[in-house]
Amino acid sequence: MSTQGRRTLKLGLLQMSMEVDPDKNLSKAVRLIGRAAQKGANVVCLPELFTTRYFAQYEGADLSAEERMAFLETIPGKSTDRLCQAARENNVVVVGGSIYEKDGERLFNTSVVIDADGTMLGKYRKTHIPHDENFYEQHYFAPGDTGFKIFDTKYGKISVLICYDQWFPEAARCCALQGAEMIFYPTAIGTVKGIEQAEGNWQFAWESVMRGHAVANNVIVAGVNRCGTEDQMEFWGGSFIIDAFGRTLTRAWKRDRVIVHQVDLDHGKDVREGWRFFYNRRPECYSEITRKVEK
Question: Are the C-beta atoms of residues 90 and 42 closer than 8 Å to each other?
Answer without folding.
Answer: no
